[in-house]
């Protein structure tokens, strides 16, 4: 008698052609896309953490919401984050999260999480190009632009 185990299937379905997608050239491009795809009804209510998934040419493959939290924070499970990155065959990511309070200053927790994700990405050969904090007033802070990355 055979032992029964679950069979795991992994798939990725892109529905955009390369010439109709968005290429990230700078933090402003990433911020523009983030604001376009952020639920404006919740940006000042609760913190969300998302990732922009990119191919090797910095063309956006998609946006994935990793977590949704409370007023002052959200938990990010790196296993889920990188499961999505690997499943989508992305070679680079940009981290995104909002500060409902409107402050652009990254917290120590923001800095530590960023470093943790960068280190994990290095092991998997996935580049973390930036981490943006966005606010309800459509302002943003770029870790890369500020030399923090």
What does this structure look like?
- A five-stranded mixed β-sheet has the order 2-1-3-4-5, with helices on both faces.
- The chain starts with 26 loop residues before the first helix and ends in a 7-residue tail after the last strand.
- The model has no long low-confidence stretch (mean pLDDT 89).
- Strand 4 (127-134) and strand 5 form a beta hairpin.
- The chain is built from three helices and five strands; from the N terminus they run αββαβαββ.
- Helix content is 24%, strand content 23%.
- With 149 residues, the protein is of the alpha+beta class.
- Keywords: Hydrolase, Metal-binding, Metalloprotease, Protease, Zinc.
- Residues 24-149 form the MPN domain.
- It comes from Mesonia mobilis.
- InterPro entries: MPN, RadC_JAB, UPF0758, UPF0758_CS.
Note the main attributes of this structure:
149 residues, alpha+beta, 5-stranded mixed β-sheet, 3 helices, 5 strands, globular, DNA repair protein, hydrolase, UPF0758_CS, protease
Q: How much of the residues is beta strand, in percent?
A: 15-25%
Distance between the termini: 54 Å
How many strand segments?
5
What's the helical proportion of residues? 10-25%
Structural class: alpha+beta
Element-level helix/strand string: HEEHEHEE
Q: Taking all residues together, what is the mean pLDDT?
A: 89
Total helical elements = 3
Unreliable residue stretches: none
Biggest sheet architecture: 5 strands, mixed
The side-by-side strand order for the widest beta sheet comes to 2-1-3-4-5
Q: What is the radius of gyration?
A: 16 Å
Keywords: Hydrolase, Metal-binding, Metalloprotease, Protease, Zinc
Protein name: DNA repair protein
Domain MPN: 24-149
Pfam families: RadC
